[in-house]
Design a protein that fits this description.
It is built from 6 helices and no strands. It is an all-alpha fold. The chain has a domain of about 130 residues. The N terminus is likely disordered. It catalyses: Fe(2+)(in) = Fe(2+)(out). Keywords: Coiled coil, Ion transport, Iron, Iron transport, Membrane, Transmembrane, Transmembrane helix, Transport, Vacuole.
Length: about 220
């Protein structure tokens, strides 16, 4: 009976330990999955912002160059205009992103302080982890400016070695279209959306921007004041 009681107690202890151990494993696993999801989400957001910035730079500078080319055949005028658009756009994107992300940083930091006061200043690992997840305005500004510049340099490189005005205009439009297709594919892969639909949206949007800029500039340039 004593041995049976001992075995019963041993079994009882095993039954107690096994659920605790299993729960511990499940908790760690769920935490690992959650952290993995958070990290992937953050990485996807940065990549998506980079694709959008590059797309913005490409469409903006290509439209500027085609618009200027509608009334000026001089290659130097087109290139200077494109370069000015690259610099101005990159600075604008960087400043806008810095202000936006810094505002988000202040809001999230204030929220952390409120949560700490509500939890009676109970500081721990969670708080340090939350601080590490706060957005970095300087990093966001630099990434935005670089992404815009990468897209903007495509039409500049496409036009720099072509002397014929008509051929140059066509090459800029074709290079911009191919780059838009690439950005559309990358955006679709990141967002897990249909590739064809994403490419068509980006491509048609870019064509509309270039066509409208060309048409309005041509109209105003040919008008007599």
């Amino acid at each position: 009976m004593a041995n049976l009681g001992a075995r019963t107690n041993g079994t009882s202890q095993n039954h107690i330990e096994i659920p605790i151990h299993a729960n511990g494993v499940d908790l760690k696993t769920s935490q690992g999955v959650e952290e993995s999801n958070v990290n992937y989400s953050q990485r996807a957001q940065w990549l998506r912002a980079a694709v959008l910035g590059a797309n913005d730079g490409l469409v903006s500078v290509a439209s500027l160059m085609i618009g200027v080319g509608a009334v000026k055949e001089d290659i130097s005028v087109m290139l200077v205009t494109g370069f000015a658009g690259l610099v101005a756009g990159a600075c604008s994107m960087a400043i806008g992103e810095f202000v936006s992300v810094y505002t988000q940083y202040d809001i999230e930091k204030a929220q952390l302080k409120r949560e700490r006061r509500e939890s009676n200043n109970n500081r721990g690992v969670n708080e340090e982890a939350q601080k590490e997840k706060l957005p970095n305005p300087f990093q966001a500004a630099l990434a935005s400016a670089l992404a815009f510049s990468v897209g903007a340099v495509v039409p500049l490189l496409a036009a720099v070695f072509i002397r014929s005005h008509k051929i140059r205009m066509v090459v800029v439009a074709v290079a911009a279209s191919l780059a838009l297709l690439v950005f559309g594919v990358v955006g679709a892969v990141l967002g897990k959306t249909p590739v064809t639909r994403s490419c068509l949206r980006v491509l048609i949007g870019g064509w509309m921007a270039m066509s409208i800029t060309f048409g309005l500039t041509k109209l105003i340039g040919s008008a007599e004041f």
